[in-house]
Fold:
Amino acid sequence: MTPLRHAVLLLALATVAPAQADIVLQGSQHVGDCNDFAAGGAACSGFTPLDPQGRASMYNTLIKFHLSTTTTITGVRLNGPIFPDRTQLEVYIQSLGGTRTIRSGIFLVDTFTLSPSLVLTPGSYSLWLDGGCSSPSGLDYFPSACGNSNDENDFGFSSITLLSAQTSTSRMFNRRRHIGDNAASVDGDNDYDQSPGDRFYPDGAEAASVSETFTVDTDQRLIDLSFYSARDITTGIAAARVYVDGLLLGSLDRGSSATAPYSLGTNLLLQDSVVHTLTIDSIDTAGNRDDSSWDDIVLTFADTVTSGTPGLFNAVDTGANGLSGTLGTKAAGAAPGVDIVALNALSTGIDIAYTGTVVVELMDATTDGTVNAFTGCHSTWTAVTGMSTAVTFIAGNAGRVALPGPFFAYALRKAALRMTDSSTGAVACSSDRFALRPDHFVVTASHGTPTTPGVTPLTNTGTSGDPQHRAGQPFTIQATAVDLSGNALSTYTGTLENSHDTTALAPATVNGSLNTPSWSAAGAVRSTAEARYNEAGAFTLQLRDKTWSDTDAGQSTDAQRWIVGTADVGRFTPDHFAFAELAAEFDPACSDSFTYLGQSFGYAVAPTATVTAMTGDAAPTVTRNYTAGALFKLPASIGASSVAAEVGTVVAVNVPSPENTVANLGNGIAQITLAAGSTFAFTRPAAPLVPFDADIAITLGALGEADGIDFSPAAPSFGVADPGLGVDFSGNNQSMRFGRLVIDNAQGSELRSLAVPLRVEYWNTGFQPSLADNCTDDMLATGNIDLSGPLGASTTPTLVSNANGRFTLNLTAPGTAGVVNVEALISGTHPWLRTDRDADGDYDDNPRALVTFGLANDDQNRRIYSREVTGY
Structure:
């Protein structure tokens, strides 16, 4: 295509000095074919970029620029020029979309002076530079296309300066750029790797970025950011994101247009004396078509903001300093307690004259990192859907208005507020991030049975009745994070602390411990089926999350930051009772030596034990509250105990009422004492039995506890009916003997008193004297002796103890000859000494003997009485 030109070419004057104040079109360019005619066709070097675009490509994609005010251009200067072929080239300036050629001329060196000057009104324009063609004659010429023998002249520059007394507020970046992977074999993006005339420069790799820096002369508002010839072959996929000072403005997601720009509308106030950065960032979509390219970028600014239009906004706690104030932790659904403040253009004070409507949005500001230095926003922060409201500044507000509430029905660890002017689009984020916590937890406790978790509420705060749960056994706790109105907050992702406050409810006095080894999370709900409480009674539970609002540590109190929920939980009972023997000792019946079978024996020390209320977990502990007031439910006396022996049969002979007493010792411990007056005896068998050691167990009866709590796993006992494990006997004298009382037959003179021997024997493979017997000596008396027969009434008995189980029965002289039957009546007093008098094999008879006075006792012995007298 032949470029349109004016008929007159204006020649540049090499000696003209550049004008003061100018408009700079930033960006290195290289135009030509890299076939240096003057160097005999050698490849060119030293250009940035090295690969050129051809004359036709430059003509079809002219350099774009924008003027914000009426501007007089006196010349065009190439900065950092490179002219390896010739020093002459043509320049054209034309309005964008209007008359094609406004002014043209020929560069002889780096500066082309316009004479007369070119006056341009505000708007968009394009500029074309043409190096022409080289010829063998050495003359440059400018046909529509260079012939095969006429190479395109190469030239390059680092930027173009439009010499002017005015300075446009716009900023231009003019360099053909390309980001992506330039891999045709993968992406099919051949458009990026064609003939030199269409080459785009791949100066940013996939997932990389390219940046340009710029400044503004005064505080100015960026109102448009336009890309010319924006080429994005990733149809439907945003291949490049555009940022200014880290603030995301939009994405390149459209195809090529040489003239109509691809514009990202904005309203971003930028400060002077600050270096600002424009960044185009590629998206890493390996294996996808993710390349983008463009030729020119034009940044257009509005005039400096006027009074009454804020530079920025800020949000602070109610009454706090509008510039340096902070935002403390907020509770979801509660009154916000926030002021929205309008700031002046430089953000150095409050714009007290500002009026207008501002949309306030809640931002998920979880992402850390450097925020935009001017707006205070981070490029990745997102607005929370539905969390926005409008505030209106009116005259008299003095640049400050309260945020209405309730507003925050949400939960965020780190939140910010974004304010946008409804008219100007001015946007800013709060200078301080804050935590937005659930207002509280709704806490419930439940179980299935007294020993299992489940869904039946545990809400009994009394001392009796159901529900009741065993201390130490698992139950269920659920905590739901809610706002002030009780709405569940699914965005809550916090964790309940492992330590929980428990406050015992009267009559309990000891605060127990609650163990929750793990919590499961499902949206706003935290739950556990492994909660265990280690005390008796009911309690008030407090669950907390202390870390959710850590971003506000130092500027909010614990009470403001912590998420808390409480519930009354109950009631809890001991899981079981533990038994501990304190004392128990039998007293042998026979002088601390032994006891006859059938003879009663009692306690030397009455059996005493403690029963302790315990939890039911793997390592049981004492439920100290069990003995507090009405929580103590043991009766004054428990059920009757039972006795058993390893050998023989032991029975209770006498048991006083009550058989035992229960005393409350406090701190979860009670004492059970068996009646001291209880007596026992081994059942005396019909036939003799060799001596054995008594191993007796006394098993406690049912506790009769009002809630059914009992010993675990079974009723305990004093001693065990196993060899060597029974209840102790004093002095270890636990021998049990089969005894009998023997009366010897006797004869004597009817004129003299007669001594009749009695003795106690025990069986040990035969009867033998019971020489260790000192108990019968004390118990057997004359009253036990019965005399009968012809002379039974003629004599008087006197029983004398000789110790060691031996006695003498003295009978007075009857005066006449005859027979006396002597019987010891012991069946009712000493049944353990009965004998087998009738030889029927059953030792159930009173012992008896025959005593004769003045008669021979058999035919072989005719002597009645004899006496030896000495000393004569």
Q: What stands out?
A: The chain has a mean pLDDT of 85. Residues 127 and 652 are 124 Å apart (CA to CA).
